[in-house]
C-alpha cells in the first residue's frame, strides 16, 4: 500500500511537471497553386507576417505559428486564398506574455495578387505587389514597399506606418503612431491624430491632416494639396504647378511654407487671433486690423495663376522661397 501511494504521488508530480512544459510552436511550410490575380486574405492576431510578391503562380507560407494557435487554415476557394492563424476565443492578460512564441510567417504570393491583411498585435510587411493592398492592424507596425495599385489602404491604431515607392490612390492612417512616406506618387491621403507625419511625395493630389502631431511634407509639382492641423505644426516645402491649388490651416499650430523660385501664385494668408505673419516671398506688407488681433497678407508671385490659401487662429505663419 505504501509503495502504491508513493507511486501515485510520483505520477501526479510528473503530470504536474508536464503541464508546465512549454507548447512548442508548429512549423509551417505549405504551398498552393493559384492564378496571378488571386485574392489573398490573411488574418493573424499577433506576431509578424511578411508578404512578398514573386513571379510564380504559387502562394508559399513558411515559418512558425503562435504557440497558442488552435488551428491553421490555408486553403483556396476559386481565386480566393484564405490564410488564418486561429487563436483561442477566451484570452486573459497572461495570453499576451512576451516570452511566448508568436506567429512568424513569410508568405510569397504572385505579383498580381490582391492582398488583404488583418491583425491585432501583429506587424505586417508587404512588398512588390501590383494590385490592390489593404492592411489593418491595431498595435502593430505596417511597412509597405514597391506597391502599384488602384487602391492602397494602410491603417494602424497605435503602430507606425512606413511606406516607400507607392503608386496609385493611397490612404495611410494611424491614431497614435507616426507615418513616414517616401517616393509616393498618384493621389495620397495621410491621417494621424497624435502621431507625426513626415512625407516626401511626387503625388499630384495630396490631403494630409493631423490633430496634435506635427506635419512635415515635401511635395514635387503638386496640383492640389490640402494640409491641416489643430495644435500641431505644419512645415511644407513644395513645388506648386502653375494651375495648382494649395490650402493650409491650423488652429494653434504654426505654418511654414517654402515655395520654389519662379512660382506663379496668388497668395492669401489670414491670422485671426494674433499670430505673426512673416513674408519673405515679396515686398508686400502684412495688413493689421484697426481693431482686434486679425492680420492678413495678400501678395502675388509671377503671373499668379496658382492659388495659395493659408489660415490660422493663433499660430504663426512664415513664407519663403
Automatic annotation (TrEMBL):
Region named Disordered: 278-309
- What start and end residues bound the annotated signal peptide? 1-25
Biased composition regions of type Polar residues, renumbered to the chain: 296-309
What single Pfam family name could you report for this chain, choosing any that match? DUF4097
The UniProt entry, under InterPro entries, shows: Toastrack_DUF4097 (IPR025164)
Limits of the DUF4097 domain: 39-238
- Which keywords accompany this UniProt record? Signal
Could you identify this protein by its name? DUF4097 family beta strand repeat-containing protein
